[in-house]
Each structure stands twice: as structure tokens, then as C-alpha cells.
Amino acid sequence: MRANKISAVLLAAGKGVRFKSDLPKVMHKLIDKPMIYYPLRALLRAGIEDIVVVLGFGAEKVKEYLISEFGEKIFSFVIQKDQKGTGDAVRVALPKVGSEKFIIVYGDMPLIDETIILELMHSFGEEKFVVTSFLTEDPYGYGRIVRDRKDNLLKIVEERDATDLEKNIKEVNAGLYLCSTRLVRKYIGKIKNKNSQREYYFPDIFQYAISDHIDVKILESKREFLLGANNRVELSEILRILQKRINTAHMVNGVTIISPDTVYIGRDVEIGRDTVIYPNVFILGKSEIGSNVVIENGTIIADSKLSDSVTVKAYCYIDKAIVLKNSIIGPFARLRPDTIVEEEVHIGNFVELKKTHIGKGSKANHLAYLGDAEIGDGVNVGAGTITCNYDGERKYKTVLEDGVFVGSDTQLVAPVRIGRNAYIGAGSTITEDVPANSLALSRVVQKNIEGWVLKRKKKKIGR
After folding, report:
1. Is residue 357 among the annotated active site residues?
2. Cα–Cα distance between 334 and 325 in angstroms, integer?
């Protein structure tokens, strides 16, 4: 079977009333991505790149996110103006479906992955419909799979419309289907809304197929891949499952996670072997972590790259930055976007870098702000140093060439260039370029008044 002959319809129109939120249901986050990201990722990794998204509540917010995350080429968007049920949502999407068969998946099924999608695709033989199900001891809220005496599908009945006997059924509808486009077009208009919610349920379509002796296959799958979230409690349960799944995969691949229950790693993060991750760490986005890296407790890393043998001490925040081999960051350091830290660099406590390239073997060990700066190799930046890079309207660049030594409590007023091997005396405010191999000082002349303290004390006694 060729994946490009299969489309997908992603249902993402619901408000999610039980979330009690102004945010569209599918936009609630798990670790670092909205729920809708995960089923879309699964579809794409299974080779499906023709996806019709049914939008409704918060349509523009969802659409904007999907395009920014995945690009516009793979999507067709349709609007379900009134949320009249899944049958109505599929009806709205059908004109955009151009393939012979298509998958229907909900936007709030974040535990799904490509293995489930591929299994569904491969199970489609002569059958014209495939329905996924799973067994659960707590089927409340799910549609029940009702089978006939030969174990074939008889119907799917929703919780609110089920009899007491049907409510005892432990096999439930997962809401993931593979369908013949032609047959869906044939039967979709026959679905009625004669139910407790006055909605058009897509699963009702199978009764029309069955009555015409068309095969409907049931694909039994695993609960932990097909759970949906209808409120924040269920979302937290899904988060725990996703967190455990991701962390387990990394540990199996040679990563040490000291306290897996407290560490959150994004779905797209890559981590090399023999890396050690301490408790309460977040590694998010498209971060790449090398081998033999140590990431201490309380650190947040987002969309960043750490090469082999980097050490990140406790409570650092690294965002859209690159740190190369054998460098040490922190504790309590912040690397902001567009920062590049070369090999064997030391960035110490309470040092902040923004849009700064710092060269091999350089050090900024204490209490510094280096923004919009280009710093060469072997540079020492003293405690309390800041680059004054913003004049209220524009940002300016500071350049420290190789071998520069910057004394403590120095202000570098950009634009300014400090030449190779130059020294800056402590307490200086540098407003002009400094030539190579020079010493720059900018201080008020010190004045000592001898005996001043004794005279002051005598005056107080005389009062």
C-alpha cells in the first residue's frame, strides 16, 4: 500500500467545554507542544501528507499554529460552523478529500504514534472500513463496540444512548478510522441525529454499511495509545503516560535520568548516550544533546544544541543557543537566542548572554551581561561586566578580540572594539575603541582625606 494514496481528516473543531478555557481544546499543551501536534506528527511519520483539518472554535489560532509548525503545503482547512457532531464534521471535510481512502483522527489524541497509523493502514484489505477499539476497565464516556454472535461489529453506541447492558461492555471505540472515500460519500447523508445530544455521530455510518453487507473490520489496539482528553484531569493522566514513554525510550538508548518522574523531554529531542540528567529538568522543542553531557537539576533547555561533554550546572536557562564541546555553563546562567558558545568556555553564575558568540577557552565566571557581542578566544570577562548595547532605539555590537582581559565592574558602551590582547582596568567605562596590546583605564582620580574620620567623630562629641 502506498501512503500517498491515503489522506487524513483531522477533527479539531471542538471547544472542549469541560476544559473551562478560552483556549481551543486541541491547543492545550503536553510538555512543549499542543495536543494537536502529536497526531499530526504521527500522520506525517507514517507518510501521510494530505491532511484536511476541520476547524471550529478558535479556528484562526489553530490554523496559525499548524502552518507555523508544519508549513502550509500539507493542509486543507475547512470550518464546521456549528458543532453538530463528528458526522457533520466529516461531511464538511469530504469535498477536500481527494484520495480513495482516508483516515479519521481526533486532534485530542496525543498518545497516538506512527506505529498505530501504519498498523491501521496495513489492516485495510478488502474491508471498506476499519474501526479501532481498545479494552478498558473504565469505559465511561466512550462509545461501546457492540458485536454480533459471530464477533463482527453490529454497531457503535455512545455512552448517553447505551442501555445498561451495553454500558457494561469493556471494548470501546477509539475514534480512529480508515474509510473508503466512495462509501463515506454514499452513506454520510443518511446519518440521523436521533440521539440524546441531537448530534450526527460518524460511527452511525457503519450500520448502513453493515446492512449492505459491507465488511467493517475492528482493529483492537492498546489503550495507552488511543486515550483522548476531555478535561484537565484526563490531560494530566495523558501527560504522565507520554512523559514515561519518552523518558523510557531515552534510558533504553543509554541516557541516565536520575528521577524520571520529574524530568520532561519533548517528543523531538535527541540525546546521546552516557548523558546524565538530574531531577526537575525540562528539555524542549528540537533540542539536540550530545554524549557524556551532564545537565544538573532545575535546568530548562529549549530548541538548543549541546555538543559532547558539556556540563550544565543547576538552574540554568538555555534558549535557542549552541554550546560546543567541553564547555561549562552555570550555575544560574542564562543563554538567550542566537548565542554560540565555543569549546572549553566557562560561563558562570548569574551570567547572561544574548546574541553573543564567545570564543574557545574564554571565561565569564560571575555576574555579567554580554549582549550583541563578538568575543574572541581566550578572553577573560571580569565580574560585574556589562555590554551597554541599547540606546533606547537601536542595538549596537561589542567586539572583544582574542586574548582580551576585562577587569571587574566594567561597562563596554557599544559600538566598541577592544583590540587583541588589550587590558581593561577594573571599574572602567569604555566608550572608545581600544588598540591591540593596550591598557585602557577610565576612572575618576581617587582622593584621600587623611584624618577625616577622627575630625567627624570630634564634631559629634562637641554637639
Report:
1. no
2. 18
